[in-house]
Amino acid sequence: MRALVAGGGPVGVFTATAMARRGHEVTVVDRDPGPATDGAWKRAGVMQFEHAHGWRPQVVQSLRAEMPGVVEDLHAAGAKRMHPPGMPEMEALAARRTVVERVLREYAAQQEGLVWRTGHVDGIAVTDGVATGLVVDGDTLVADVTVVATGRASHVGDELRGPVEGGSCGFSYVSRVYRAREGQAGYDRFFPSFETGPGYVSLVMGHDAGTHSVVIAYPSDAEEFTTLRTNDGQDRACRVIPNLIPWTDPNRFEPLTGALAGGHLTNTYRLQGPALGLPPASGLYFVGDAVMTTNPAAGRNLALLLPHARHFLAALDDPEQDLDDASLALDAWAEMHLRPWYRDHAHWDRTLLRRFAGLDIDLSDRIPSDVIVAAIEVDESIKPYAGMYGGMVAGPEILDPVEGRVRELLDQGWRPKTPGPTGAELTEAIRT
Ligand SMILES: Cc1cc2nc3c(=O)[nH]c(=O)nc-3n(C[C@H](O)[C@H](O)[C@H](O)COP(=O)(O)OP(=O)(O)OC[C@H]3O[C@@H](n4cnc5c(N)ncnc54)[C@H](O)[C@@H]3O)c2cc1C
Predict the structure, then answer these.
(1) Which CATH topology does 2-166+266-337 take?
(2) Distance 289 CA to ligand 1 centre (A)
(3) Which residues line ligand 1 (CB under 6 A)?
């Protein structure tokens, strides 16, 4: 079949390569021409390019299945192989996204049957309910199968789909990449250091080549934190937030970037077509962030979106399924495996913002997952459930059996610890 893939981000490249490996004639269309000859790569329109990314075991598993050898290419480019303690069979990667995307692109460029075209996708060509290709810079490119992987901010194909569920997650980000100075050890733990403070979330995530990112996520409407987006403000905050202090020590680490602002973070979910059971057009499929986004603080999206794309590939392979069946299969899988995580994160964020505003946990509502997980500080029996939730070995409903126990603890007066300076103290620290 002739296939067009709009968008050459991680999910577009993954899907396009896998289709070409199956013998289809694939063209990827992306407006980004790729790295310049001097190696610089701006990645305009992909705000998160330089932001911290964790590559969970589900990502590595998907890459191994559909892009054989690419994980080894990533290792060769410096990405570190990581295993959860005591679980050598589970393999994750620690690497900057800037490193991973380059390797994925280079791999795709070598793939027989895959052609790269630089151009802007203006829209989808549809005739009598059948997608016939893409309109690119005014020209129509023809295909039997059209895949849209244009990311979180794109409107390509909007007119063929129902409304987006969700929206802003209420949080903004500031992150910064550091590198260990010569002779100093970098952050090489499997788990990011993740703390929910009294008014903000702070985390440290290890990457390749002695680099790591520190991230502060704060309520988007907290104007008093705007200074965090400046190098000075970010520096000052890192001197008082406990889990960031050791990883921003100027004697051990140097910043590789300035403070990187990340706004408009969302929790969104969207069906393929106008409603469940209705394809957008025959032979047209949406994958990647065009289907779901979640607040990146938990670093989950690609661990869900690559398996989603694999489900699409399996449906295309199945001689029993026609093009519309493949669309319905994508929605069915998403309803079962994506939507629960979207809902889980939206609830986590909504309730955390309430707590940051000084309100108590609402015990008449579902106990948010972050609170259930935090309860391991007072009840060890919750740990296995928290571990399975954190590792995404099942859906977020894995926490259901212990929700009652946490409710009991909350009734008895327990509340999660919130280490670090208060919002007011942090505001003062970043001002002076
Ligand atoms: C701050 C931040 C941190 C994150 N951290 C993590 C993490 O730790 N772990 C994780 O798994 N996920 C993380 N995510 C989510 C992850 O970045 C996304 O899920 C991922 O980028 C989705 O890939 P994609 O290919 O669908 O879209 P994108 O990566 O957005 O790629 C879309 C591509 O489409 C192209 N494009 C868009 N419109 C057009 C057009 N009209 N014409 C031509 N080309 C077009 C763009 O140039 C781009 O190349 C994070 C997200 C954010 C915002």
Answers:
(1) FAD/NAD(P)-binding domain (3.50.50)
(2) 6
(3) 6-12, 29-32, 45-46, 48, 51-54, 120-121, 149-152, 154, 156, 173, 262, 265, 288-289, 296, 299-303, 305
> Which phi and psi angles does 4 have, rounded to 5°?
-115, 135
pLDDT tens per residue across span 190-248: 999 999 999 999 999 999 999 999 999 999 999 999 999 999 999 999 999 999 999 99
Task: List pLDDT tens digits, range 42-51.
Answer: 898 899 999 9
- What CA–CA distance (Å, rounded) separates 12 from 24? 15
395 near 337, Cβ under 8 Å?
Answer: yes
State the Cα–Cα distance between residues 92 and 86, nearest whole angstrom. 13
- Break the chain into its structural domains and give their ranges: 2-166+266-337, 171-264+424-431, 361-414
**Residue 91 is encoded by which pair of tokens?**
């393999």
Which atom of ligand 1 is the closest one to the Cα of 121? 42
Pick the CATH number of 171-264+424-431 from 3.30.9, 1.10.3470, 3.30.160, 3.30.70: 3.30.9
Ligand 1 midpoint to CA 9 (Å): 6
Given a contact cutoff of 8 angstroms between Cβ atoms, the answer to whether 157 and 124 are in contact is yes
Phi and psi dihedrals of 414, rounded to 5? -70, 140
Q: How many residues does the chain have?
A: 432
Alpha helices in 275-322 (DSSP H): 301-317
Count of alpha carbons within 13 angstroms of residue 50, beta-carbon side = 19
Give the global pTM.
Answer: 0.97
